[in-house]
User: Fold these one by one.
Assistant:
Number 1:
Amino acid sequence: MGDRDRGDRQKWNRKYRDKGPESFGSEPAEWLVAHRDLLTPEPHGRALDVACGNGRNAAYLARLGFTVDALDVSGVVIAWLRERVDREGLSVHPRCCDLTRGPLPPREYQVVLNFNFLQRDLFAALKDATAPGGLVVFESFTRLQVELPRGPSDPEHTLEAGELRRAFADFEILDYREKTLFPEDVQKTRAMASLVARRPDR
Ligand SMILES: C[S@@+](CC[C@H](N)C(=O)[O-])C[C@H]1O[C@@H](n2cnc3c(N)ncnc32)[C@H](O)[C@@H]1O
Protein backbone atom coordinates (compact mmCIF):
# COMPACT_ATOMS: atom_id res chain seq x y z
CA MET A 1 0.00 0.00 0.00
CA GLY A 2 1.46 3.36 -1.04
CA ASP A 3 1.76 6.33 1.31
CA ARG A 4 -0.75 8.43 -0.63
CA ASP A 5 -3.28 5.59 -0.59
CA ARG A 6 -2.91 4.91 3.11
CA GLY A 7 -3.28 8.62 3.81
CA ASP A 8 -6.24 9.00 1.45
CA ARG A 9 -8.07 6.02 2.90
CA GLN A 10 -7.67 7.16 6.50
CA LYS A 11 -8.42 10.78 5.71
CA TRP A 12 -11.58 10.04 3.74
CA ASN A 13 -12.86 7.34 6.08
CA ARG A 14 -12.51 9.84 8.91
CA LYS A 15 -14.30 12.57 6.93
CA TYR A 16 -17.19 10.29 6.00
CA ARG A 17 -17.50 8.99 9.57
CA ASP A 18 -17.36 12.48 11.08
CA LYS A 19 -19.56 14.36 8.63
CA GLY A 20 -21.63 11.65 6.98
CA PRO A 21 -21.52 10.44 3.36
CA GLU A 22 -23.91 13.11 2.14
CA SER A 23 -22.14 16.08 3.68
CA PHE A 24 -20.28 16.79 0.42
CA GLY A 25 -23.53 17.04 -1.54
CA SER A 26 -26.11 14.54 -2.66
CA GLU A 27 -27.35 16.11 -5.91
CA PRO A 28 -25.56 15.17 -9.15
CA ALA A 29 -22.95 17.68 -10.30
CA GLU A 30 -24.42 20.56 -12.30
CA TRP A 31 -21.76 20.08 -15.00
CA LEU A 32 -22.93 16.50 -15.51
CA VAL A 33 -26.62 17.38 -15.58
CA ALA A 34 -25.92 20.26 -17.98
CA HIS A 35 -24.61 17.72 -20.51
CA ARG A 36 -27.53 15.34 -20.11
CA ASP A 37 -28.23 15.38 -23.85
CA LEU A 38 -24.86 13.78 -24.58
CA LEU A 39 -25.47 11.00 -22.05
CA THR A 40 -27.59 8.63 -24.05
CA PRO A 41 -26.85 5.05 -23.10
CA GLU A 42 -26.57 2.41 -25.77
CA PRO A 43 -28.36 -0.81 -24.84
CA HIS A 44 -26.54 -2.14 -21.78
CA GLY A 45 -24.29 0.92 -21.81
CA ARG A 46 -21.67 0.95 -19.08
CA ALA A 47 -20.19 3.87 -17.20
CA LEU A 48 -17.33 4.30 -14.73
CA ASP A 49 -17.21 6.79 -11.84
CA VAL A 50 -13.75 7.10 -10.25
CA ALA A 51 -13.48 8.41 -6.68
CA CYS A 52 -17.27 8.19 -6.66
CA GLY A 53 -17.82 9.27 -3.04
CA ASN A 54 -21.47 8.81 -2.10
CA GLY A 55 -22.34 7.92 -5.70
CA ARG A 56 -24.42 11.02 -6.44
CA ASN A 57 -23.18 11.06 -10.06
CA ALA A 58 -23.17 7.27 -10.46
CA ALA A 59 -26.81 7.17 -9.30
CA TYR A 60 -27.70 9.88 -11.83
CA LEU A 61 -26.18 7.85 -14.68
CA ALA A 62 -27.90 4.69 -13.44
CA ARG A 63 -31.24 6.50 -13.57
CA LEU A 64 -30.47 7.44 -17.19
CA GLY A 65 -30.04 3.75 -17.98
CA PHE A 66 -26.33 3.09 -17.55
CA THR A 67 -24.80 0.29 -15.53
CA VAL A 68 -22.15 2.01 -13.45
CA ASP A 69 -18.94 0.76 -11.86
CA ALA A 70 -18.30 3.11 -8.93
CA LEU A 71 -14.85 3.07 -7.31
CA ASP A 72 -13.61 4.75 -4.16
CA VAL A 73 -10.81 4.21 -1.65
CA SER A 74 -13.07 4.77 1.38
CA GLY A 75 -14.60 1.56 2.69
CA VAL A 76 -16.94 3.71 4.78
CA VAL A 77 -18.55 5.43 1.81
CA ILE A 78 -18.57 2.28 -0.33
CA ALA A 79 -20.44 0.35 2.40
CA TRP A 80 -22.94 3.22 2.61
CA LEU A 81 -23.35 3.27 -1.19
CA ARG A 82 -23.88 -0.53 -1.32
CA GLU A 83 -26.79 -0.15 1.08
CA ARG A 84 -28.25 2.69 -0.97
CA VAL A 85 -27.90 0.74 -4.20
CA ASP A 86 -29.70 -2.28 -2.67
CA ARG A 87 -32.40 -0.11 -1.15
CA GLU A 88 -33.09 1.85 -4.36
CA GLY A 89 -32.41 -0.97 -6.83
CA LEU A 90 -29.83 1.07 -8.72
CA SER A 91 -27.65 -0.46 -11.44
CA VAL A 92 -24.49 0.70 -9.67
CA HIS A 93 -21.64 -1.62 -8.66
CA PRO A 94 -19.66 0.01 -5.83
CA ARG A 95 -16.14 -1.22 -5.25
CA CYS A 96 -13.55 -0.22 -2.68
CA CYS A 97 -10.47 0.48 -4.73
CA ASP A 98 -7.21 2.35 -4.38
CA LEU A 99 -6.73 4.29 -7.61
CA THR A 100 -3.06 4.90 -6.85
CA ARG A 101 -2.47 1.17 -7.18
CA GLY A 102 -4.77 -1.13 -9.06
CA PRO A 103 -5.66 -0.87 -12.73
CA LEU A 104 -9.13 0.25 -13.72
CA PRO A 105 -11.62 -2.51 -14.58
CA PRO A 106 -10.60 -4.13 -17.89
CA ARG A 107 -13.44 -2.89 -20.03
CA GLU A 108 -14.30 0.08 -22.18
CA TYR A 109 -16.98 2.44 -20.94
CA GLN A 110 -19.37 4.67 -22.81
CA VAL A 111 -18.97 7.32 -20.10
CA VAL A 112 -16.13 7.89 -17.62
CA LEU A 113 -16.65 10.33 -14.73
CA ASN A 114 -14.00 12.02 -12.61
CA PHE A 115 -15.41 14.63 -10.24
CA ASN A 116 -13.60 16.53 -7.49
CA PHE A 117 -10.59 14.26 -7.59
CA LEU A 118 -7.17 14.68 -9.16
CA GLN A 119 -4.65 11.94 -9.79
CA ARG A 120 -2.59 12.97 -12.79
CA ASP A 121 -1.07 9.57 -13.45
CA LEU A 122 -4.62 8.25 -13.94
CA PHE A 123 -5.29 10.39 -17.03
CA ALA A 124 -3.95 7.78 -19.47
CA ALA A 125 -5.94 4.99 -17.79
CA LEU A 126 -9.14 7.09 -17.92
CA LYS A 127 -8.63 7.55 -21.66
CA ASP A 128 -7.94 3.85 -22.20
CA ALA A 129 -11.09 2.98 -20.24
CA THR A 130 -13.22 5.14 -22.56
CA ALA A 131 -14.74 3.32 -25.51
CA PRO A 132 -14.17 4.80 -28.97
CA GLY A 133 -16.82 7.49 -29.33
CA GLY A 134 -17.32 7.47 -25.54
CA LEU A 135 -17.18 10.47 -23.20
CA VAL A 136 -15.01 11.61 -20.35
CA VAL A 137 -16.75 14.08 -18.03
CA PHE A 138 -14.25 15.65 -15.64
CA GLU A 139 -14.43 18.44 -13.10
CA SER A 140 -11.94 19.29 -10.41
CA PHE A 141 -10.29 22.12 -8.52
CA THR A 142 -8.03 24.46 -10.40
CA ARG A 143 -5.82 27.36 -9.41
CA LEU A 144 -7.40 30.36 -11.06
CA GLN A 145 -6.74 32.58 -8.11
CA VAL A 146 -3.71 32.73 -5.91
CA GLU A 147 -5.59 32.42 -2.65
CA LEU A 148 -8.94 30.77 -2.16
CA PRO A 149 -10.57 30.57 1.24
CA ARG A 150 -11.94 27.11 0.46
CA GLY A 151 -10.89 24.10 -1.54
CA PRO A 152 -7.48 22.51 -1.92
CA SER A 153 -4.66 24.77 -3.05
CA ASP A 154 -1.66 22.43 -3.04
CA PRO A 155 -0.31 21.60 -6.51
CA GLU A 156 -0.88 17.85 -6.09
CA HIS A 157 -4.63 18.33 -5.73
CA THR A 158 -5.26 21.33 -8.00
CA LEU A 159 -5.03 21.68 -11.76
CA GLU A 160 -2.93 24.34 -13.42
CA ALA A 161 -4.77 26.83 -15.62
CA GLY A 162 -5.32 25.05 -18.96
CA GLU A 163 -3.93 21.75 -17.70
CA LEU A 164 -7.12 19.71 -18.07
CA ARG A 165 -7.65 20.85 -21.65
CA ARG A 166 -4.05 20.00 -22.51
CA ALA A 167 -4.33 16.59 -20.86
CA PHE A 168 -7.23 15.66 -23.17
CA ALA A 169 -5.93 17.34 -26.32
CA ASP A 170 -5.99 13.99 -28.15
CA PHE A 171 -9.75 13.73 -27.49
CA GLU A 172 -12.42 15.88 -29.12
CA ILE A 173 -13.18 18.57 -26.56
CA LEU A 174 -16.94 19.16 -26.62
CA ASP A 175 -17.07 21.62 -23.76
CA TYR A 176 -14.50 23.19 -21.44
CA ARG A 177 -14.65 25.80 -18.72
CA GLU A 178 -12.48 27.25 -16.02
CA LYS A 179 -14.55 29.22 -13.62
CA THR A 180 -14.69 30.69 -10.17
CA LEU A 181 -17.89 29.41 -8.61
CA PHE A 182 -19.84 31.34 -5.97
CA PRO A 183 -17.54 34.41 -6.23
CA GLU A 184 -19.96 36.41 -4.08
CA ASP A 185 -19.85 33.96 -1.16
CA VAL A 186 -16.49 33.81 0.54
CA GLN A 187 -17.40 30.60 2.35
CA LYS A 188 -18.26 28.74 -0.83
CA THR A 189 -16.04 30.24 -3.50
CA ARG A 190 -13.78 27.87 -5.42
CA ALA A 191 -12.24 27.57 -8.85
CA MET A 192 -13.05 24.57 -11.00
CA ALA A 193 -11.94 23.25 -14.38
CA SER A 194 -14.63 21.27 -16.20
CA LEU A 195 -14.42 19.22 -19.37
CA VAL A 196 -16.47 16.98 -21.61
CA ALA A 197 -14.36 15.16 -24.18
CA ARG A 198 -15.07 12.42 -26.67
CA ARG A 199 -12.63 9.66 -27.50
CA PRO A 200 -12.11 9.59 -31.26
CA ASP A 201 -13.49 6.57 -33.10
CA ARG A 202 -10.85 4.04 -34.01
C1 LIG B 1 -14.18 15.32 -2.88
S1 LIG B 1 -14.65 13.64 -2.90
C2 LIG B 1 -15.50 13.56 -4.45
C3 LIG B 1 -16.53 12.46 -4.51
C4 LIG B 1 -17.37 12.42 -5.79
N1 LIG B 1 -16.56 12.27 -6.98
C5 LIG B 1 -18.23 13.64 -5.89
O1 LIG B 1 -17.92 14.56 -6.66
O2 LIG B 1 -19.22 13.70 -5.16
C6 LIG B 1 -13.11 12.81 -3.29
C7 LIG B 1 -13.24 11.30 -3.25
O3 LIG B 1 -12.00 10.72 -3.67
C8 LIG B 1 -11.81 9.53 -2.96
N2 LIG B 1 -10.40 9.15 -3.04
C9 LIG B 1 -9.34 9.84 -2.51
N3 LIG B 1 -8.20 9.19 -2.78
C10 LIG B 1 -8.52 8.07 -3.47
C11 LIG B 1 -7.76 6.98 -4.02
N4 LIG B 1 -6.44 6.90 -3.88
N5 LIG B 1 -8.42 5.99 -4.68
C12 LIG B 1 -9.78 6.05 -4.81
N6 LIG B 1 -10.54 7.06 -4.32
C13 LIG B 1 -9.93 8.06 -3.66
C14 LIG B 1 -12.28 9.87 -1.56
O4 LIG B 1 -12.58 8.76 -0.76
C15 LIG B 1 -13.50 10.74 -1.86
O5 LIG B 1 -14.69 9.96 -1.87
Note: The pocket of S-adenosylmethionine is lined by residues 5, 8, 12, 24-25, 51-53, 56, 72-74, 77, 97-100, 115-117 (CB under 6 Å).
Number 2:
Amino acid sequence: MMKIDLVTQAAQRIASLKGHFVHHERFVPLAEGFSILAEKRLVDIQSGRTSEAQGLALSGHSGAGKSAAITHLLAMESQRLAEHGHGDTTIVSLRVPSPATLKFVGQMLLRALGYPIGADRHAWYIWDLVQHHLRERRVLFVHLDEAQDLASRGTKHELDSVTSMLKTLMTDPEWPVGIILSGTNELEDILNHDYQLARRMKTVRFESLSPAAYGDEILDLLDSYCERAGLEPEDDVLELSHGERVVHAAANQFGIAIVLILDAIEDAYLQGQKTLNRHNFIRSYYRRTSCDAEFNPFVVPDFMRIDARQVFSRENRT
Ligand SMILES: Nc1ncnc2c1ncn2[C@@H]1O[C@H](COP(=O)(O)OP(=O)(O)OP(=O)(O)O)[C@@H](O)[C@H]1O
Ligand SMILES: [Mg+2]
Protein backbone atom coordinates (compact mmCIF):
# COMPACT_ATOMS: atom_id res chain seq x y z
CA MET A 1 0.00 0.00 0.00
CA MET A 2 1.25 3.47 -0.77
CA LYS A 3 2.18 5.68 2.17
CA ILE A 4 -0.41 8.27 1.21
CA ASP A 5 -3.19 5.67 1.51
CA LEU A 6 -1.92 4.85 4.96
CA VAL A 7 -2.15 8.52 5.95
CA THR A 8 -5.70 8.94 4.64
CA GLN A 9 -6.82 5.72 6.24
CA ALA A 10 -5.21 6.63 9.57
CA ALA A 11 -6.92 10.03 9.53
CA GLN A 12 -10.31 8.45 8.91
CA ARG A 13 -9.93 5.82 11.60
CA ILE A 14 -8.68 8.36 14.14
CA ALA A 15 -11.57 10.72 13.35
CA SER A 16 -14.02 7.95 14.13
CA LEU A 17 -12.20 7.05 17.37
CA LYS A 18 -12.31 10.72 18.38
CA GLY A 19 -16.06 10.74 17.98
CA HIS A 20 -16.36 8.33 20.90
CA PHE A 21 -17.09 9.83 24.32
CA VAL A 22 -15.77 7.96 27.36
CA HIS A 23 -18.25 7.78 30.24
CA HIS A 24 -15.78 8.07 33.06
CA GLU A 25 -17.14 7.92 36.63
CA ARG A 26 -16.42 11.66 37.01
CA PHE A 27 -19.10 12.31 34.43
CA VAL A 28 -21.84 10.89 36.68
CA PRO A 29 -22.17 13.72 39.25
CA LEU A 30 -22.10 16.26 36.45
CA ALA A 31 -24.80 14.52 34.43
CA GLU A 32 -26.95 13.95 37.53
CA GLY A 33 -26.60 17.54 38.71
CA PHE A 34 -27.57 18.75 35.30
CA SER A 35 -30.60 16.52 34.78
CA ILE A 36 -32.03 17.64 38.13
CA LEU A 37 -31.75 21.26 37.00
CA ALA A 38 -33.34 20.49 33.67
CA GLU A 39 -36.20 18.51 35.22
CA LYS A 40 -37.03 21.23 37.74
CA ARG A 41 -37.17 23.80 35.01
CA LEU A 42 -39.43 21.65 32.82
CA VAL A 43 -41.81 20.95 35.70
CA ASP A 44 -42.04 24.69 36.31
CA ILE A 45 -42.75 25.40 32.66
CA GLN A 46 -45.42 22.70 32.46
CA SER A 47 -47.17 23.91 35.57
CA GLY A 48 -46.91 27.53 34.48
CA ARG A 49 -44.93 28.41 37.59
CA THR A 50 -41.73 30.34 37.59
CA SER A 51 -39.03 30.11 40.18
CA GLU A 52 -35.43 31.20 39.91
CA ALA A 53 -33.39 29.03 37.60
CA GLN A 54 -30.29 27.36 38.97
CA GLY A 55 -26.95 26.99 37.32
CA LEU A 56 -23.97 24.71 37.23
CA ALA A 57 -20.25 25.45 37.40
CA LEU A 58 -17.64 22.94 36.24
CA SER A 59 -13.99 23.60 37.02
CA GLY A 60 -10.77 21.72 36.33
CA HIS A 61 -7.30 22.12 34.88
CA SER A 62 -6.70 22.58 31.18
CA GLY A 63 -7.16 19.26 29.42
CA ALA A 64 -9.30 17.73 32.17
CA GLY A 65 -12.12 17.22 29.67
CA LYS A 66 -14.53 19.98 30.69
CA SER A 67 -15.51 21.21 27.23
CA ALA A 68 -15.85 17.66 25.93
CA ALA A 69 -18.06 16.69 28.89
CA ILE A 70 -20.38 19.69 28.64
CA THR A 71 -20.68 19.38 24.86
CA HIS A 72 -21.66 15.75 25.28
CA LEU A 73 -24.07 16.57 28.09
CA LEU A 74 -25.83 19.33 26.16
CA ALA A 75 -26.15 17.17 23.06
CA MET A 76 -27.70 14.37 25.13
CA GLU A 77 -30.05 16.80 26.84
CA SER A 78 -31.19 18.38 23.56
CA GLN A 79 -32.03 14.94 22.24
CA ARG A 80 -33.89 14.04 25.43
CA LEU A 81 -35.86 17.29 25.32
CA ALA A 82 -36.88 16.61 21.72
CA GLU A 83 -37.95 13.06 22.57
CA HIS A 84 -40.08 14.28 25.47
CA GLY A 85 -42.01 16.84 23.46
CA HIS A 86 -39.89 19.85 24.36
CA GLY A 87 -38.35 20.24 20.92
CA ASP A 88 -39.25 23.92 20.98
CA THR A 89 -36.79 24.62 23.80
CA THR A 90 -33.18 25.52 23.18
CA ILE A 91 -29.77 25.31 24.82
CA VAL A 92 -27.19 27.88 23.78
CA SER A 93 -23.46 27.37 24.17
CA LEU A 94 -20.67 29.85 23.55
CA ARG A 95 -17.14 30.67 24.54
CA VAL A 96 -16.60 33.77 26.65
CA PRO A 97 -15.29 36.41 24.24
CA SER A 98 -12.27 38.55 24.85
CA PRO A 99 -12.41 41.25 26.11
CA ALA A 100 -15.23 40.02 28.34
CA THR A 101 -16.96 43.35 28.71
CA LEU A 102 -20.66 43.46 29.46
CA LYS A 103 -21.37 44.74 25.99
CA PHE A 104 -19.22 42.25 24.13
CA VAL A 105 -20.53 39.25 26.07
CA GLY A 106 -24.06 40.42 25.30
CA GLN A 107 -23.24 40.86 21.64
CA MET A 108 -21.77 37.35 21.38
CA LEU A 109 -24.75 35.88 23.16
CA LEU A 110 -27.10 37.62 20.74
CA ARG A 111 -25.09 36.24 17.87
CA ALA A 112 -25.29 32.74 19.37
CA LEU A 113 -29.05 33.26 19.53
CA GLY A 114 -29.01 34.00 15.83
CA TYR A 115 -29.36 37.79 16.03
CA PRO A 116 -26.07 39.47 15.20
CA ILE A 117 -26.07 43.16 15.97
CA GLY A 118 -23.59 45.98 15.38
CA ALA A 119 -21.32 47.32 18.12
CA ASP A 120 -22.84 50.80 17.99
CA ARG A 121 -25.52 49.96 20.55
CA HIS A 122 -25.59 50.52 24.26
CA ALA A 123 -25.02 47.57 26.54
CA TRP A 124 -28.46 47.95 28.10
CA TYR A 125 -30.09 47.80 24.66
CA ILE A 126 -28.14 44.67 23.72
CA TRP A 127 -29.07 42.90 26.97
CA ASP A 128 -32.69 43.89 26.56
CA LEU A 129 -32.63 42.13 23.21
CA VAL A 130 -30.81 39.15 24.74
CA GLN A 131 -33.56 38.72 27.31
CA HIS A 132 -36.21 39.08 24.67
CA HIS A 133 -34.69 36.41 22.43
CA LEU A 134 -33.98 34.05 25.32
CA ARG A 135 -37.73 34.09 26.00
CA GLU A 136 -38.74 33.90 22.34
CA ARG A 137 -36.52 30.94 21.63
CA ARG A 138 -37.43 29.28 24.93
CA VAL A 139 -33.81 28.96 25.96
CA LEU A 140 -33.47 26.75 29.04
CA PHE A 141 -29.72 27.00 29.48
CA VAL A 142 -26.90 29.24 28.41
CA HIS A 143 -23.45 27.66 28.62
CA LEU A 144 -20.36 29.87 28.81
CA ASP A 145 -17.11 27.99 28.23
CA GLU A 146 -13.74 29.39 29.36
CA ALA A 147 -15.68 31.26 32.02
CA GLN A 148 -12.46 32.10 33.88
CA ASP A 149 -11.88 34.66 31.11
CA LEU A 150 -14.71 36.72 32.58
CA ALA A 151 -12.11 37.85 35.10
CA SER A 152 -8.93 37.89 33.04
CA ARG A 153 -9.52 40.97 30.96
CA GLY A 154 -11.31 44.17 31.65
CA THR A 155 -11.73 45.75 35.00
CA LYS A 156 -13.25 44.44 38.19
CA HIS A 157 -16.17 46.63 37.32
CA GLU A 158 -16.80 44.72 34.07
CA LEU A 159 -16.67 41.40 35.91
CA ASP A 160 -19.19 42.67 38.44
CA SER A 161 -21.56 43.87 35.75
CA VAL A 162 -21.34 40.60 33.79
CA THR A 163 -21.96 38.45 36.87
CA SER A 164 -24.84 40.63 37.93
CA MET A 165 -26.33 40.30 34.46
CA LEU A 166 -26.03 36.50 34.72
CA LYS A 167 -27.91 36.69 38.02
CA THR A 168 -30.55 38.83 36.34
CA LEU A 169 -31.04 36.16 33.65
CA MET A 170 -31.39 33.42 36.26
CA THR A 171 -33.93 35.37 38.29
CA ASP A 172 -36.00 36.76 35.42
CA PRO A 173 -39.60 36.61 36.67
CA GLU A 174 -40.97 35.70 33.25
CA TRP A 175 -38.38 33.40 31.75
CA PRO A 176 -35.49 32.42 34.05
CA VAL A 177 -32.51 30.88 32.28
CA GLY A 178 -30.04 28.42 33.84
CA ILE A 179 -26.42 29.42 33.46
CA ILE A 180 -23.73 26.79 32.99
CA LEU A 181 -20.15 27.91 33.46
CA SER A 182 -17.09 25.82 32.67
CA GLY A 183 -13.52 26.91 33.09
CA THR A 184 -10.15 26.41 34.71
CA ASN A 185 -9.71 26.72 38.44
CA GLU A 186 -9.79 30.52 38.39
CA LEU A 187 -13.51 30.14 37.77
CA GLU A 188 -13.71 29.07 41.40
CA ASP A 189 -12.29 32.45 42.44
CA ILE A 190 -14.95 34.27 40.46
CA LEU A 191 -17.68 32.34 42.26
CA ASN A 192 -16.00 32.85 45.60
CA HIS A 193 -16.14 36.56 45.04
CA ASP A 194 -19.81 36.60 44.26
CA TYR A 195 -21.84 34.68 46.77
CA GLN A 196 -25.14 35.66 45.18
CA LEU A 197 -24.03 33.96 41.98
CA ALA A 198 -22.37 31.02 43.76
CA ARG A 199 -25.40 30.17 45.84
CA ARG A 200 -27.46 29.72 42.68
CA MET A 201 -24.96 27.24 41.26
CA LYS A 202 -24.23 23.59 41.71
CA THR A 203 -20.51 23.00 41.50
CA VAL A 204 -18.52 20.11 40.10
CA ARG A 205 -14.77 19.84 39.87
CA PHE A 206 -12.87 17.50 37.56
CA GLU A 207 -9.91 16.57 39.75
CA SER A 208 -6.48 15.81 38.41
CA LEU A 209 -5.56 12.12 38.24
CA SER A 210 -2.66 10.83 40.31
CA PRO A 211 -0.41 8.32 38.51
CA ALA A 212 -0.41 5.94 41.49
CA ALA A 213 -4.19 5.87 41.82
CA TYR A 214 -5.14 5.96 38.14
CA GLY A 215 -2.35 3.99 36.40
CA ASP A 216 -4.53 0.89 36.46
CA GLU A 217 -7.63 2.59 35.21
CA ILE A 218 -5.76 4.24 32.34
CA LEU A 219 -4.55 0.78 31.28
CA ASP A 220 -8.18 -0.34 31.06
CA LEU A 221 -8.90 2.73 28.97
CA LEU A 222 -5.93 1.97 26.73
CA ASP A 223 -7.10 -1.61 26.36
CA SER A 224 -10.61 -0.56 25.33
CA TYR A 225 -9.28 1.98 22.83
CA CYS A 226 -7.06 -0.73 21.33
CA GLU A 227 -10.11 -2.92 20.91
CA ARG A 228 -12.00 -0.15 19.15
CA ALA A 229 -8.95 0.59 17.05
CA GLY A 230 -8.47 -3.04 16.03
CA LEU A 231 -4.93 -3.13 17.45
CA GLU A 232 -3.49 -5.72 19.82
CA PRO A 233 -1.71 -4.11 22.79
CA GLU A 234 1.80 -5.49 23.33
CA ASP A 235 2.99 -6.41 26.82
CA ASP A 236 5.05 -3.25 27.27
CA VAL A 237 1.96 -1.02 27.19
CA LEU A 238 0.02 -3.20 29.60
CA GLU A 239 2.49 -2.85 32.47
CA LEU A 240 1.27 -0.79 35.39
CA SER A 241 4.24 1.54 35.03
CA HIS A 242 3.11 2.35 31.50
CA GLY A 243 -0.29 3.43 32.81
CA GLU A 244 1.50 5.68 35.29
CA ARG A 245 3.64 7.10 32.51
CA VAL A 246 0.56 7.97 30.48
CA VAL A 247 -1.03 9.75 33.45
CA HIS A 248 2.15 11.67 34.16
CA ALA A 249 2.79 12.53 30.50
CA ALA A 250 -0.79 13.85 30.39
CA ALA A 251 0.03 16.29 33.20
CA ASN A 252 -2.47 14.26 35.27
CA GLN A 253 -5.38 15.29 33.05
CA PHE A 254 -7.97 12.79 31.88
CA GLY A 255 -8.65 14.40 28.49
CA ILE A 256 -4.96 14.65 27.63
CA ALA A 257 -4.45 10.99 28.60
CA ILE A 258 -7.05 10.09 25.96
CA VAL A 259 -5.35 12.34 23.43
CA LEU A 260 -1.97 10.65 24.13
CA ILE A 261 -3.49 7.21 23.62
CA LEU A 262 -5.10 8.32 20.35
CA ASP A 263 -1.81 9.86 19.16
CA ALA A 264 -0.01 6.58 19.83
CA ILE A 265 -2.71 4.65 17.98
CA GLU A 266 -2.36 7.02 15.06
CA ASP A 267 1.38 6.39 15.03
CA ALA A 268 0.77 2.64 14.97
CA TYR A 269 -1.58 3.09 11.99
CA LEU A 270 0.99 5.19 10.18
CA GLN A 271 3.61 2.50 10.74
CA GLY A 272 1.21 -0.05 9.31
CA GLN A 273 1.26 -2.01 12.60
CA LYS A 274 -1.31 -4.47 13.86
CA THR A 275 -0.21 -3.97 17.45
CA LEU A 276 0.39 -1.01 19.77
CA ASN A 277 3.67 -0.73 21.68
CA ARG A 278 5.72 1.67 23.76
CA HIS A 279 7.60 3.00 20.73
CA ASN A 280 4.34 4.44 19.41
CA PHE A 281 4.02 6.43 22.64
CA ILE A 282 7.65 7.53 22.51
CA ARG A 283 7.36 8.75 18.93
CA SER A 284 4.01 10.46 19.30
CA TYR A 285 5.12 12.21 22.50
CA TYR A 286 8.17 13.48 20.64
CA ARG A 287 6.02 14.73 17.76
CA ARG A 288 3.77 16.50 20.19
CA THR A 289 6.46 18.22 22.28
CA SER A 290 9.77 18.12 20.33
CA CYS A 291 11.41 17.16 23.63
CA ASP A 292 14.65 15.19 23.63
CA ALA A 293 14.57 11.58 24.82
CA GLU A 294 15.84 12.69 28.26
CA PHE A 295 12.59 14.60 28.62
CA ASN A 296 10.30 11.91 27.24
CA PRO A 297 8.33 10.20 30.05
CA PHE A 298 7.94 7.09 27.91
CA VAL A 299 11.73 6.73 27.67
CA VAL A 300 13.37 7.55 30.98
CA PRO A 301 13.03 5.37 34.10
CA ASP A 302 12.56 8.31 36.48
CA PHE A 303 9.74 9.83 34.44
CA MET A 304 8.17 11.53 37.47
CA ARG A 305 10.86 14.20 37.40
CA ILE A 306 9.76 15.41 33.94
CA ASP A 307 7.54 18.46 33.69
CA ALA A 308 4.95 17.20 31.21
CA ARG A 309 3.66 20.70 30.47
CA GLN A 310 6.96 21.73 28.89
CA VAL A 311 7.64 21.53 25.17
CA PHE A 312 10.94 21.84 23.24
CA SER A 313 13.00 20.60 26.23
CA ARG A 314 16.62 19.87 25.30
CA GLU A 315 19.54 18.46 27.24
CA ASN A 316 21.94 21.11 25.95
CA ARG A 317 20.40 24.28 24.68
CA THR A 318 22.64 25.94 22.13
N1 LIG B 1 -14.81 11.86 28.11
C1 LIG B 1 -14.04 11.98 27.02
N2 LIG B 1 -14.11 11.09 26.02
C2 LIG B 1 -13.33 11.19 24.93
N3 LIG B 1 -12.43 12.16 24.74
C3 LIG B 1 -12.30 13.09 25.69
C4 LIG B 1 -13.10 13.07 26.88
N4 LIG B 1 -12.75 14.12 27.66
C5 LIG B 1 -11.78 14.77 26.98
N5 LIG B 1 -11.50 14.16 25.81
C6 LIG B 1 -10.47 14.57 24.85
O1 LIG B 1 -9.55 15.39 25.51
C7 LIG B 1 -9.36 16.62 24.83
C8 LIG B 1 -9.25 17.72 25.87
O2 LIG B 1 -10.48 17.85 26.57
P1 LIG B 1 -11.25 19.24 26.69
O3 LIG B 1 -11.02 20.09 25.51
O4 LIG B 1 -12.65 18.93 27.05
O5 LIG B 1 -10.47 19.85 27.95
P2 LIG B 1 -10.82 21.15 28.79
O6 LIG B 1 -10.94 20.71 30.21
O7 LIG B 1 -11.96 21.85 28.18
O8 LIG B 1 -9.46 21.98 28.63
P3 LIG B 1 -9.26 23.58 28.49
O9 LIG B 1 -9.44 24.13 29.88
O10 LIG B 1 -7.86 23.72 27.99
O11 LIG B 1 -10.29 24.08 27.53
C9 LIG B 1 -10.57 16.79 23.95
O12 LIG B 1 -10.22 17.38 22.72
C10 LIG B 1 -11.05 15.37 23.70
O13 LIG B 1 -10.49 14.88 22.52
MG1 LIG C 1 -12.16 23.64 27.20
Note: The radius of gyration is 23 Å.
